[in-house]
Here is the input.
Amino acid sequence: MSNDEKTNENLDAAKATATNIISSFMALKENNPKVFFGSIAGMAVILILIMMSGGSNTKTVKGPDIQNLAVGQRYTLKSANAYDKDATVRLVSVPGAIAAYDDTEAADRSGACQHIIQGTPVSVVELQDAYGKKNTYSKVQIEEGECKGSSGWVLSVDVQ
Here is the structure.
């Protein structure tokens, strides 16, 4: 017997088995519909449970560490949302303006002491609550560099 004949014989046997399973399942539908539909529901529940089990290797997304800031203490500026070491932290004059600024104009990007380099030492002068969260904004005073003595508001998460 050649390989082609064996393959055809195995294929015919598989088709016959599949036909028998389907015909017995359809006969179950006619003879006992409760068992038929119950088995379908059971398979659906098992499938949903398998799909919803996420496995054991789940990882939680961790945000930036938020420190308990204290007025008068020294910290450094570090942007929580930037991986670029050359990214800057924006200082604004009013706490709520942080989310609303648009620096598309050249004057906004090169204004005096508005974009502070990460790692700049600062002192916290004042803390402001917003949106139901305590100490959301920090008023900081620059301690070193060309903007020494300047102050402005930053997001507290950017003060590390």
Remarks:
- The first helix runs from residue 3 to 31.
- The two ends are 78 Å apart (CA to CA).
